[in-house]
Amino acid sequence: MDVQLLESTPEPERVICTAARNDYSSAFVGEQSFATTMEPINGETIEDKKHSLISRLLKHGHFGPFEHAHATFAVKGISRSCMAQLTRHRHVSFDVQSQRYVSFDDVDPADVRDGELVVMPPSVSDPDWIGRNQQGGTTDSETIDQRTAVFKETVANAVESYQTLLDLGLPPEDARFVLPIGSKVNVVMTMNARMLMHVADMRAAADSQWEIRELTEQVLDLAADWCPITFEHYESEMKGRKNRLAP
Ligand SMILES: Cc1cc2nc3c(=O)[nH]c(=O)nc-3n(C[C@H](O)[C@H](O)[C@H](O)COP(=O)(O)OP(=O)(O)OC[C@H]3O[C@@H](n4cnc5c(N)ncnc54)[C@H](O)[C@@H]3O)c2cc1C
Questions:
Q1: pLDDT at res. 237
Q2: What is the structure's pLDDT at 239?
């Protein structure tokens, strides 16, 4: 899996603060400097004032201003299972690589055994993997070898059957029915900072599934560079309080 930040609102926290200040300002924020807009907020410098206002907004549940900052992420190689979970979030915009128009006819089934085309969950080969509800734990090496072999053979066979069906003239949109739910897919998604925090509330939580949790952690790392004050306060004050942003 790889996650990249493609595009984002420049100076997102300036936009968030300006929008928030608009609510309590008799002057028009479009006709004054940012420094003037932030004048009544506590803090020595503009950075201090941004910290102070953003922290207050998050603490008081004034989340609307965070909807004005958007980010677009490119996600490479998540499973279709993970994609199905991700696309449940209705305020995120998605583009999903199509299995109707992209046929995987040139992938070598031998490479599929090595993780090409299908995501292999760590629990297959990691003897010490502990999943949700403490599932897993120490597993002997013979069992690990067996389940790794079964997993790799099954996915390689599925891809081989898929390619045979393509060779027999079945359209990709129908041949794909035999591909595993772990098949990799690339996704582009756009969301605002409020929704990003909501997705993180739900998907970075300990009871979330490992793959979408890993994806969310990568998104959060990129968000921390893009919108640093917001995500610093989110991490320190908000994270773990489930559904805080979309009660
Ligand atoms: C650990 C975990 C396990 C899960 N297991 C399952 C499962 O077994 N089966 C399953 O089907 N789903 C499951 N889900 C998905 C979950 O039920 C939600 O559908 C998904 O997380 C989307 O989140 P959301 O409901 O907050 O909606 P989002 O689409 O992210 O919307 C954000 C917020 O907007 C508001 N909103 C959006 N649309 C509406 C609407 N139409 N009406 C009213 N308010 C709205 C709500 O306040 C919502 O919280 C699971 C999620 C997690 C995190």
A1: 76
A2: 62
CA distance 69 to 18: 11
Q: Is 147 a catalytic residue?
A: no
Kindly report the protein residue whose alpha carbon is nearest to atom 9 of ligand 1. 85
CA-to-CA distance for 151 and 121, rounded, in angstroms? 10
Which residue has the least CA distance to atom 7 on ligand 1? 85
Segments of the chain scoring below 50 in pLDDT:
none
Structural domain includes residue 60: yes
Mutate to test the pocket of ligand 1, among 202, 211, 241, 242 (most ligand atoms within 8 A of CB): 202
For residue 21, the domain's CATH number is 3.30.1360.170
The pLDDT score that the predictor gives to residue 7 is 98
- The Cα 238–Cα 220 span in angstroms is 13
What secondary structure letter does DSSP report for 70?
A: E
Domain limits for position 224 = 2-72+188-238
Mean pLDDT of the chain: 90
